[in-house]
Amino acid sequence: MLALFSKISYTYVLICCLTIGCKEDILSEKYENLKGYEDFYVYTHSVKKKGVVYVGMGRVDRAWMLTKRNKLWETFFADCEPEVKIVERNLTLEGAESLERTLIAYYLKDKGFLLNIYAGSRKCRPITNERASELLSKYNARYWKGKARTKESIQKGVDTKNERDSHARYWKGKKRDPELMRKLKAASMTPEAQEKKAVKLRGQTRTPEQKARMSEAGKGRVMSEEAKLKISQAKTGRPNGLEGHKWTDEARANLSKARIGIRHDQETLDRIKATKAEKVANGWVNPKSKAVLCVELNKQFINAKEAAKAIDKASAKHIQACCVGRRLTHAGHTWKYV
Hints:
The chain has 338 residues and is mainly alpha-helical. The protein has 14 helices and six strands. Strand 1 and strand 2 form a beta hairpin.
């Protein structure tokens, strides 16, 4: 039956769909574009003894990627890698989606189980770990129904379960060696480990339930100064996630609207003022400040505040007013931005 799907013919595919009981509306109205000029392809993932368990479409190396998969696929292939087979190449987007839907319908009719969580691409709904485990359990029950398992396979499953349970019992109520935990944490913070984690999480979105649980867990929790210091040291030297990001006008308006009516308390204001005074005392200069020039003295200052300190009876506010054209002179001098 698979050989029929490898041909780019509307007639063949329609015959296959009718044979396996698929409705004609599964086919795309643009199925004739299967003879197109794009670089999409349709592929399958299979395992020994169980055959095809997943149908997908993509381009470039999508068929061989082990990331950005649904939870059911990740659970199924946690301990093994799929066997990849390309069904058809050089398809348009519409043609690849249509052939993918047709193959999904065929294998669901034939096997009753696939790792696909929707009958086609770009419309996948999220699936939880609990739901993935439930579907895998049902599939294994159907697969082994009426079949005799070997003693080796039964013993292997029992040994695996006993090993997992004994590991959990051993560590229950115990604290691990701090030196071991430090090494494990250091290994997880390496650039290679961070990149691997980023690749795995890229494109994933949290469900509203997950967001609600995270929000509830963080409410009322006060972070110690030691924890704050550790977080600060861990992030020192690392690029900011918003570096180079440009906010849209709508996002700026939403941020501004969210801050309306919110005022810092006096303790926060005092802390900001003290921090700024300490930075200035250490020679910090605001990078956004502009240098000013006293025309009569032909002397340049790094900003208006420094000029006000150097000139008798001068005010930084009035110097800035001269620079922007609201005043002609101040303290007997003409000022302008450099």
